[in-house]
Amino acid sequence: MKYYILFGPPGAGKGTQATAMAEKYNLCHISTGELLRAEIHAGTELGKQAAALINDGKLVPDSVVEGMIASRFASVKGVDGFLLDGFPRTLEQAEALDELLDEDAEMVTSVISIMIPDGMIVERIQGRAAKEGRADDASLDTIRHRIETYHSQTEPLIAYYKARGKYKEVDGTGTIGQVRDAIFSLM
Ligand code: AMP
Question: Of all protein residues, whose CA lies closest to atom 2 belonging to ligand 1?
């Protein structure tokens, strides 16, 4: 099985690219952000707790997203692999993922990182806000906090995966098609 991680700051275009990657390589696309938004829409207890954190631009607890990933790995059949979008986002999550895969004698195939400069993040997210109606895209304060969270908690994963020889990066500032082709050339 293949286990790809799609990495990058908020607004880099991970969700857009994930759809094309999953289709071409028969991967199950797992977006922890989308799973959390589904819980919020369904009005579950988990969704209520997650909403407050998400709307503040903070991360939900590691154990919550780790459980979501483990249950998808166990239940999804008939694919050639998984494409993780927005997970892992902390070192603790990356270590938990390695342990989970190790139990099945599997490992992360590669981390594909879509990079855009901070200055472009706000513009991209504000453009998306109108189309997708995400509450966490609507406020500039929330967007700024997500950028800070990315730098402090998620960016250290670059060194983690570089040290394991798994890290690959594409320039995310081009068109959707250019970024997609650059990703496909790395898979
Ligand atoms: P996303 O759709 O990936 O931008 O995620 C939206 C929000 O969901 C994030 O800003 C976090 O609050 C939360 N979230 C998504 N994935 C994770 C994760 N792996 N760990 C913690 N929080 C997450």
Answer: 33
